[in-house]
Design a protein that fits this description.
This protein is α+β, with helices and mostly antiparallel strands. Helix content is about 30%, strand content about 30%. Strand 1 and strand 2 form a beta hairpin. The longest helix is centred in the middle third of the chain and has 38 residues. InterPro entries: Bact_Sigma-Reg, GAF, GAF-like_dom_sf, HATPase_C_sf, HATPase_dom, PAS, PAS-assoc_C, PAS-like_dom_sf. This is PAS sensor protein. Keywords: Hydrolase.
Length: about 800
């Protein structure tokens, strides 16, 4: 017996007969019924088993049932009921089979059987009756039509004999339960009538049949077709599933893929989602388009590997000509169902033989194309194809596809708008951040900025600002919130920090002025609607390479990490100032002496905090990643991000600034104490020239001599002793500084024709790259920078 034969019960006798009438297989049930072992009958002609061997064995072209008398091995006879079925030979498989069951005269007296007459013939529903041995006693016409066999062909069969499908095995189990308990039972099943192309959903009522004494004699099975209700429930379930599964992220590609995943296999065997290329400038696409149309495939899902209707991979641009379902649905602005092949598709397929062959190979017979439309704009098209599902798309299927697609279109449009806004914000953010870091002799720096993976671009920033005297400022900050507003606020604060740093304010004073600015921004943002929400944190540090000391102050920001040249990373203990925007609270500074090649790490809290872990765990991972940061700083930045950030990206934007400090050798600094005597300016100029000669900077001698003369003379005339002159140089810059204890700052003014003074600082400004004044606790320092390349 072949494995796929429906008669798989060992009690039923089965035999397989070749086209010439020879027995090729003999089941265990046949041996029990007739006593013949397989080796005794296989190979013999089946007609030899008949009691009257001269009679022919009924093997019609299709199906036959009736009663026969067969010869038993012991010489007796057995009356049986036979169901014979003819199969077209396929390869080397068998041609026909017989199903034989013992026939007892009392079992099939159907017209006079009250059990059958009461249960079957009086029921308008599809009904069948099984006896205590689970043999089918009778069916009405409705059930016979459902099972696809004449009523007289079904008598005596078991549930598994009817079709052998799993639902019939379940039916037999439930029948036994009803016979055992005597209680009715309801079950749902799917059965397909022989004349139908699709299965129906049936609600079966299994009721016990009893005689006058109350003994259970059989089971009546009454089936009610509730296919429409079942399909309506399936459609509602798919809509609910689409609501929860589509649009989980603000990513266009993933949202489109979620649409395809939801609809396979519930609605189609293959789904592709293709979007129109966005117009330049971000203009929305009109509601209808004329073919041919170019679409970018962004997602697809298939029930099997050979199901897709074409070979276009995800990401490829696909051009659909006129008469294709996709182009026609976009042109019409509504859904289109097209059969394959059809007159409408012939011209389309004829233009692409590869695609036509793939459609034929995959067995696609129907394509449903639904335009993706949201807020009056057309985004693209979703194509649904069926191959293994034999049913074509119905009107209800089209409505369901349109409902799911409409939900997905809104989510895709939201994702596209979010992506556009995020890209705009990111562009603004990057334009406000430094594009490159200045090269200074005091330090080497490397930075990283990462926008948040979920909440979008925020207001994190970093900066490296050259100051006078070879000093350099490092700053990192974080504006509260995300989006364009946060990025714009970040840009204003960064500009303010650079402006305040240019006048050489101490770190704590700079943060005080920055706090006032945030308060003003909050008032502007609030207007008449109540308190504003502008806030920020900031860390500001100034490193002096001559003294190798670093002064730092913070406003609600995480403290920096220092990595000594041959040590482990640790946090610098700084006074914890309040966040910017609170107002009225003081900021404090701390000063540290740091060795050459020490690395300072500044970062925002998005690096160490997340929803998956607390800040303490992130800080520990950061210290571990920074320990031993002796290699290139860019590699250290990458290692920190890979080690500290949680998988899937940061929940907040991240700014990271690493700076390797380099002190200036004492040989590049020269200092003189100047007596408050104008007559001694000439010897000072001579000492300066000698020092420049020792440094091999004679090309800058003339300019440096004039600048030193003017600055020293100005300090002697208007300042207060003690007066000190300092020269500092590196490979590109020479700096002249004159310090005194007076807090009065000079002002550049244009001298009139007959004025005797006022030309010194103007001359210094013309001869140097830049100049300025910085105030200290002891007084002030006037400085000027000369670019050595300009002296050559």
């Amino acid at each position: 017996m072949r494995p796929d034969d429906p008669f798989d019960d060992a009690v039923t006798a089965r035999a397989v007969i070749a086209a010439d009438g020879t027995l090729t297989q003999w089941s265990e049930g046949a041996r029990l019924l007739l006593g013949h072992r397989p080796e005794e009958v296989v190979g013999r002609h089946a007609a030899e088993l008949l009691a009257d061997s001269a009679g022919p064995l009924p093997l019609p072209e299709d199906r036959w049932s009736g009663t026969l008398v067969l010869r038993h091995r012991d010489g007796g006879t057995v009356s049986v009921w036979v169901l014979a079925h003819h199969r077209q030979p396929s390869g080397d498989g068998p041609g026909e089979w017989l199903a034989v069951t013992p026939l007892e005269a009392t079992d099939y007296d159907l017209p006079d059987d009250p059990l059958v007459r009461k249960a079957v013939f009086q029921s308008p529903c599809a009904t069948m009756v099984f006896d205590q041995a689970l043999r089918l006693r009778g069916v009405n016409d409705a059930m016979a039509l459902l099972l696809g066999l004449p009523a007289d062909h079904l008598r005596g069969l078991r549930p598994t004999d009817i079709g052998g499908r799993p639902q019939h095995s379940e039916l037999e189990r439930q029948l036994r339960h009803v016979l055992r308990t005597g209680r009715p039972h309801d079950m749902q099943t799917h059965m397909k009538a022989r004349a139908e192309s699709h299965a129906h959903a049936w609600l079966a009522r299994l009721a016990p049949l009893t005689d006058r004494s109350g003994r259970v004699r059989g089971v009546c099975v009454t089936a009610h077709d509730f296919t429409e209700q079942f399909r309506a429930r399936e459609r509602l379930q798919l809509v609910n599933e689409a609501s929860s599964r589509i649009g989980t992220t603000l990513d266009v590609t993933r949202t489109a893929q979620e649409l395809a995943d939801v609809c396979v296999p519930a609605l189609a065997d293959f789904v592709s989602v293709e979007l129109l290329e966005p117009e330049e400038g971000g203009d929305e696409t009109p509601g209808r388009l004329s073919p041919p149309v170019s679409l970018r495939r962004v997602a697809q899902q298939a029930l099997a590997h050979d199901t897709p209707t074409d070979s276009a991979p995800v990401g490829e641009l696909v051009v659909y000509p006129e008469n294709s379902p996709q182009a026609d649905s976009l042109a019409a602005g509504h859904s289109i169902v097209a059969s394959v092949p059809s007159g409408d598709l012939d011209s389309w397929l004829s233009e692409d033989e590869t695609q036509a062959r793939r459609i034929e190979k995959s067995g696609v017979h129907t394509i449903l194309s639904v335009p993706l439309q949201a807020r009056g704009a057309t985004l693209g098209v979703a194509a649904f194809a069926r191959s293994s599902q034999p049913e074509a798309f119905t009107h209800d299927d089209v409505l369901l596809a349109e409902e799911v697609t409409a939900r997905a279109a809104v989510c895709i449009d939201n994702a596209r708008r979010y992506s556009r806004e995020r890209e705009t914000t990111l562009t603004l953010q990057r334009s406000l951040l430094p594009r490159s870091l200045p090269r200074t002799a005091a330090l080497e720096a490397a930075t990283r900025y990462l926008p948040a993976a979920r909440s979008g671009v925020g207001g994190d920033w970093f900066d490296v600002i050259p100051l006078s005297g070879m000093r350099v400022a490092m700053v990192v900050g974080d504006v509260v919130g995300h989006g364009i507003q946060a990025s714009a606020t970040m840009g204003r604060l960064r500009t303010a920090v650079r402006t305040l740093a240019d006048i050489d304010l101490a770190p704590d004073e700079l943060l005080t002025h920055l706090d006032d600015l945030v308060l003003h921004l909050s008032e502007e943002a609030a207007g008449d609607s109540g308190p504003g929400e502008v806030g920020a944190t900031c860390l500001y540090a100034v490193y002096d390479p001559v003294s190798r000391r670093c002064t730092l102050s913070r406003a609600g920001h995480p403290p920096p990490v220092v990595i000594p040249p041959h040590g482990s990373a640790l946090h610098l203990e700084l006074p914890s100032g309040p966040p910017l925007g609170l107002g009225g609270l003081p900021f404090e500074s701390a000063e540290f002496e740091l060795a050459d090649d020490s690395v300072l790490a500044f970062y925002t809290d998005g690096l160490v905090t997340s929803r998956e872990r607390d800040a303490g765990q992130g800080e520990a991972l950061l210290l571990e990643a920074l320990s031993g940061a002796s290699g290139p700083l860019d590699e250290t930045c990458d290692r920190v991000l890979n080690s500290v950030l949680v998988p899937g990206g940061a929940t907040d934007d991240v700014a990271l600034l690493l700076a390797r400090l380099r002190g200036l050798p004492s040989s590049q600094v020269a200092t003189w104490d100047i007596p408050a005597d104008p007559a001694l300016v000439a010897p000072i100029r001579k000492q300066v020239l000698d020092q420049l000669a020792a440094w091999e900077l004679t090309d800058a001698s003339f300019t440096a001599e004039l600048v030193v003369s003017e600055l020293v003379t100005n300090a002697i005339r208007y300042g207060a002793p003690p007066i000190r002159l300092r020269l500092i140089h590196d490979a590109t810059t020479l700096i002249c500084e004159v310090s005194d204890t007076s807090h009065t700052a000079p002002h550049l003014r244009r001298a009139k024709t007959w004025d005797e003074g006022g030309r010194g600082l103007l001359l210094v400004a013309q001869l140097t790259q830049r100049w300025g004044t910085r105030h200290t606790t002891e007084g002030k320092t006037i400085w000027a920078e000369l670019v050595l390349a300009d002296m050559e």
